[in-house]
């Protein structure tokens, strides 16, 4: 027996719950107070490959995400692969220990041999035996602008990746599918570069003081006002490093006696910030609103563990786009939950600011929501603006409090002036305030490129994770050998890609990750796609068994 | 055999008849009890949620969180920053007034050096501004590799690693080596980034009194006794000492030779934080190891930020490859964060060039420090805290008024007085509630090579007048 299917939320908005024939459960009560009912299908990694989710009215356009399940044969082979590598790892360690094989690993000084060892042998097992074999796919040095095409420094290794030397040659015009250059502002000519040049000549390169002391420039104030206008919030504040923005400000907002609910796949900076704050941390399943709601209800009803005192505040940490999965946060549902349970929302838009939404204002713009609903909007300038640093935007009281109590403003130096100028110029361009339509064109190009790229890859038969609109495209590789092979084969075809394995991803779900940019032309994408298809056939990567209905 | 079985059955029935009554009754009761236990509901521990749905809803309705942030009063001393327009060089424009700069950590005067700016501009023309990626994913530029090589060569170590933010350098380096269960001995006056690094590492922290080697030795001896009780655990517990070359908060030097002796005696590793002493101490500016003549291989890790003498942004760690290479995969601020913008790295390389070409500037800087130290002696009501050759001194009140707030107000009025007379000073800022050992409020006086004798005289007399006028 179910209750009526609409409930009034705090703002009087109607929220249609997707009710579908609820039975009463064992105790005879019907769970009719939860916002989002338990659905018939499992939420993450569904057996069917696809979720087209409307949820009656909360979403203005279809929210299409897919995480196809790992084929069984592939999973078995992957585990076998890791097993073989581990056995060989032990064998090699044994040989190295007994001096049958030359040991390239740096060792402790003679004078300090009787100190407690600095590293435990097992910590580095993975590094020594698995990572070293395919190490040439990472830390590739570049010697040009990280734009749509880049120049790589050629490296050669004569001892199986233990040491590298530069041959002196440069691999030119490698198509760059790895840098976070969503709107193509990583350029050394044009409006932004000129403005940054002027600024360097006027202000110099560095600041040598913190914001509270002598490091607050007029350019910082201008930047903060511009960021606040861009986001649509009352006030904003900028910091010199994106990672540090999270790790230094979350402790200022939450403390002992507070609860932090953080998504499973949150970035290391959010996790570090939550740990440093000293609050209790509870993790909910990735992008799973039922899990989040259950945690919220349990937290409010039962209070703090053991003492049962009520929590001082509850902070929900989510990201706009998750960079390893390519998924977009279900923001309308999170905001509905936050309003019902009176929690605070911290949204980390590192990858989504500038990349999503018709105006480039991020995931709030993408869903057409009110920026005032998000309590703390955080983001970084590294990705879409081609600069460095982070920001936090929100109500004036919040920003005033951060101005006085954030660790970064008191102890860390402020942002370098040319970097601030680059952000100002690129943000004005995106907003259209510099008088050109360059910003609008780039936003449109990015979303076209994203749709085209994802569609073509899916049609080819690869398993692609994530939301249809996210410019981060993870392509599943699964097997450890394919990680190295994919990276190297793509480089042979003059395309620079990023491959990721354990521990950034679960052990059998290693992937290649492409970042689509507005600077990529259709020809570049076609070249890249042809090469990917070729390598996919060579390495047998086309695992997908489903054909997605076009929506 | 069937007959054998039947015969057993007959015997059983006979035994049944012959058994005493109480025996049968007891057996019967036991059997009934077992049947009851088998069929009754499983006994659950008292569930926490013996609340009904309605009660849960009420609790959810009633719960009111605290406001996200407590309100900040409008006249909070840190709310309104001083605004600087124009370059932060020797003459700096603060709040519209042009003043002599005694507040930016520009020790070697490289902030508006033309060569440094030109190199930065060349780099900007080649690479643009940002790197658009972390070091692992196409964020490593040849400039970064060059800077790391140059730093390692300058400090005469095997390897160096760069971070893109000064604060994050030591705060990422410490947790990469020291984990839960390890022991760290740290000086009480350690700066905030060291404290955050220690907090992130979750190790046992033991503070020893500032620059007090006997206190440190006492702690080490206590630890030795503990080890003897549990040798198996002691064999896997790593120990570290974290000290600074020149302390930011007290402007004095750590006694490095004694520390090295303690290191070998008690088998602890030393992490040295040289933000204030890199480019200041030592004949060639190599820091406190050169100053004392200590072999640099004896120090396990030297960390410094490039935001003081080097006049750039970011930080670095240097040491032996065995130690430094580990951070490339486990330093959080290195792996998970975008790399340093190449123009800032190019500026740092040029600054290193200048430092190597002319080692005389370090002697000049130290002379000026001594000069300033002497000129500030004898001001009524203020005492100079720091060694004569340190470039960032503190001026503290001789006698505190009793409350920190009024001390801060008095110092602020001294600074305002000086700003009016075109000498730019600043207060040393701390987060009152977060610091473990909060230093007393003070005025920070920074010495740079660009300050002339007249500037120093003017500043000293200005501070003297201010002290006389305000501290009567």
TrEMBL record, chain A:
GO cellular component, one term: endoplasmic reticulum membrane
GO molecular function: pyridoxal phosphate binding; serine C-palmitoyltransferase activity
Any one GO biological process: sphingosine biosynthetic process
Superkingdom of origin organism: Eukaryota
Keyword Lipid metabolism: yes
Presence of the UniProt keyword Membrane in the record: yes
Pathway field: Lipid metabolism; sphingolipid metabolism; Sphingolipid metabolism
UniProt keywords, alphabetically: Acyltransferase, Endoplasmic reticulum, Lipid metabolism, Membrane, Pyridoxal phosphate, Sphingolipid metabolism, Transferase, Transmembrane, Transmembrane helix
Pfam families: Aminotran_1_2
EC number(s) from the headed UniProt entry: 2.3.1.50
Main localization (coarse): endoplasmic reticulum
Membrane topology: Single-pass membrane protein
Family: Belongs to the class-II pyridoxal-phosphate-dependent aminotransferase family.
PANTHER family linked to this entry: CLASS II AMINOTRANSFERASE/8-AMINO-7-OXONONANOATE SYNTHASE (PTHR13693), SERINE PALMITOYLTRANSFERASE, LONG CHAIN BASE SUBUNIT 2B (PTHR13693:SF83)
Name used for this protein in its record: serine C-palmitoyltransferase
TrEMBL record, chain B:
Metabolic or biological pathway, per its Swiss-Prot or TrEMBL entry: Sphingolipid metabolism; Lipid metabolism; sphingolipid metabolism
One GO location term (cellular component): endoplasmic reticulum
SUPFAM superfamilies the UniProt entry points to: PLP-dependent transferases
GO molecular function: pyridoxal phosphate binding; serine C-palmitoyltransferase activity
Domain Aminotransferase class I/classII large: from-to ranges: 98-461
Listed Pfam families: Aminotran_1_2
Cofactor(s) this protein cannot do without: pyridoxal 5'-phosphate
GO biological process entries: ceramide biosynthetic process; sphingosine biosynthetic process
UniProt EC number: 2.3.1.50
Keyword terms: Acyltransferase, Lipid metabolism, Membrane, Pyridoxal phosphate, Sphingolipid metabolism, Transferase, Transmembrane, Transmembrane helix
Reaction(s) the record says it catalyses: tetradecanoyl-CoA + L-serine + H(+) = 3-oxohexadecasphinganine + CO2 + CoA; dodecanoyl-CoA + L-serine + H(+) = 3-oxotetradecasphinganine + CO2 + CoA; L-serine + hexadecanoyl-CoA + H(+) = 3-oxosphinganine + CO2 + CoA; octadecanoyl-CoA + L-serine + H(+) = 3-oxoeicosasphinganine + CO2 + CoA
Residues spanning the membrane: 20-39, 160-178
Family membership: Belongs to the class-II pyridoxal-phosphate-dependent aminotransferase family.
Function according to Swiss-Prot or TrEMBL: Component of the serine palmitoyltransferase multisubunit enzyme (SPT) that catalyzes the initial and rate-limiting step in sphingolipid biosynthesis by condensing L-serine and activated acyl-CoA (most commonly palmitoyl-CoA) to form long-chain bases. The SPT complex is also composed of SPTLC2 or SPTLC3 and SPTSSA or SPTSSB. Within this complex, the heterodimer with SPTLC2 or SPTLC3 forms the catalytic core. The composition of the serine palmitoyltransferase (SPT) complex determines the substrate preference.
Family matches, as PANTHER family: CLASS II AMINOTRANSFERASE/8-AMINO-7-OXONONANOATE SYNTHASE, SERINE PALMITOYLTRANSFERASE 1
Name used for this protein in its record: Serine palmitoyltransferase 1
Species annotation: Chanos chanos
